[in-house]
Amino acid sequence: MCYSRRLTFISILSVFFVFGCVNKKMSISSNNDSRKYFEDLSFIRESENAPSATIDEENIVGIKSNLGIDIELDSILKIIKSEVDEEIFTDGYTIQIYLGDKREEAENTVEKLFEYDSLIKSNTIFTQPNYRVKTGTFEDRFKANFEYKKLKKIFPNAIIIPEKIKIN
After folding, report:
1. Is residue 138 part of a domain?
2. Structural domain harbouring 95
3. What is the CATH number of the domain that holds 119?
């Protein structure tokens, strides 16, 4: 009795498996009137009869490309890229005299530095959430250390930081 139940169960599973794996072909007709939504987008597409203009890269102000991207923007990006490529950086050092999240303290630090020496240039950088006040660009650590010893007396939190410096 147990053997017949197993045999029946296996045969039913095999029938479901065979008919479940049969490839069902769906007929697709090109004249399917059951589709109710239709939208004509021909006015958006460019017409095939439009004359193709040659674009000179020197005079590209105000002309739109085929992708809808403003070519004027592309020319501005090329100019920016060429300017960035011209800048040369080298390894160097700078002195950070303030690091904190309060803008007023950063401004007070810059004023205090200006009172100490009005010829020293400072650079305030905001990297969320911190303000950094840096001064000096030095090519080697010995020159940075000489200035650091003077500033350490006035700004006890001053440190020397390795940084890329721009060569003019």
Report:
1. yes
2. 88-167
3. 3.30.70.1070
Q: In whole angstroms, give the CA distance from residue 156 to residue 98.
A: 9
**130: β partners:** 127
How far does Cα 21 stand from its chain's mean position? 48
Tell me, yes or no, whether 97 lies in a domain.
yes
Rounded to the nearest angstrom, the gap between the alpha carbon of residue 7 and the centroid of all alpha carbons in its chain is 64
pLDDT at 161 over 90: yes
* C-alpha–C-alpha distance, residues 125 and 135, integer Å: 11
Tokens of 115: 């009172």
What pLDDT, in 10s, does the model give residues 62-101?
Answer: 444 445 567 778 888 888 887 766 778 889 999 999 999 9
Apex 31 CA angle, 26 and 37, nearest 5: 95
User: For the chain, what is the domain count?
Assistant: 1
CA distances from 109 to 74, 90, 132 (A): 41, 27, 10
Report if residue 103 sits inside a domain.
yes
> Rounded to whole angstroms, how far apart are CA atoms 106 and 90?
27
